[in-house]
Amino acid sequence: MAAIVGFREIPLEQLTIGLGQVRMRDVNKGIGELADSIRQVGLLEPIVVSPIDESETYEIITGQRRFLAHKRLGEETIWSAILDEHVDELTAKVLSVTENLVRRDLHSRDLIDVCTYLYRQYGSMKDVCDETGLSYDKVRKYVKYDQLVPELKEKVDSGDVKLTTALKAQQAATVGGDTDTIEAVQFATEMEPMSGAQRQKIVKDERRIRRARLMTLSRMQSRAARSLRS
User: Residue 63 in contact with residue 20, Cβ under 8 Å?
Assistant: First the structure.
């Protein structure tokens, strides 16, 4: 793991926001307040950067909002902690998500994206938990976003429903691996204001009804087949 080897003021023009940044949404939210705070009391904690090459350019690993606040203030340099080596995208994302979870809540889609990315890299939800400090239940929930039908992903992305609601809605509208998309979207809308217990009851009731329909249909098809043979 890369280690900090020094601190110094680095010109903003020598810094770039790297691909490893976890916060992709609401980046500028509250930047004005952050800039005002920095103007009044100064930068309380340095950003963390890693060298890109030997040309004195650096990639921002943590602190992109502090960097943007400095740009807004018209500052020329920013106090930075420098890592001893360039870090890859995977390591950068782990460092970025850990720091952002401490500072303020990330947008849910940012958490979904980073947990999905890390899960694909590690192949284990436990490893994602160990690296980020997130609970297993949260990691599992975020990784499941990829399993949603496109219509429910749109509802989550727009903020119309929470990810937890969308997952429950799809579960209620799915039996035997087949999802009724129209009903899934309808369930999501109806479930959003409900409590967790109410959502779970709908899931159980709907799955029981759907299984009963499938069994009835299967028996009818079997009878029809026997009738044709006779």
Answer: no
- Is residue 87 classed exposed, middle or buried when 0-12, 13-18 and 19+ CB atoms within 10 A define those classes? buried
> Which domain-ending residue is among 87, 105, 127?
87
- Residue 128 forms part of a structural domain: no
For residue 59, name the pLDDT band (cuts at 50, 70, 90).
Answer: very high
Tallying the residues shown for the chain, one arrives at 230
**Residue found by looking up tokens 């509802």 in the block:** 155
> Is there a contact between 69 and 34 (Cβ–Cβ < 8 Å)?
yes
**181 HSE (CA, 13 A, CB side):** 9
Structural domain range at position 157:
148-229
- Which tokens in the block code for residue 185? 């979207």
Identity of the highest mean pLDDT range in 44-48, 75-79, 176-180, 202-206 = 75-79
pTM confidence score:
0.57
Which structure tokens are listed for 189?
């809308």
Phi, psi values for residue 209, rounded to 5°: -65, -45
Q: What is the 3-class SS of 54-114, one letter each residue? A: CCCCEEEEECHHHHHHHHHHCCCEEEEEEECCCCCHHHHHHHHHHHHHHHCCCCHHHHHHH
pLDDT for the residue numbered 125 = 92
pLDDT band at 102 (very low <50, low <70, confident <90, very high): low
In the chain, the number of structural domains is: 2
Q: What digits encode the pLDDT tens for the residues 145-175?
A: 988 999 999 999 888 999 999 999 998 888 7
Q: Which amino acid is at 209?
A: I
Q: Could you tell me if residue 109 is inside a domain? A: no
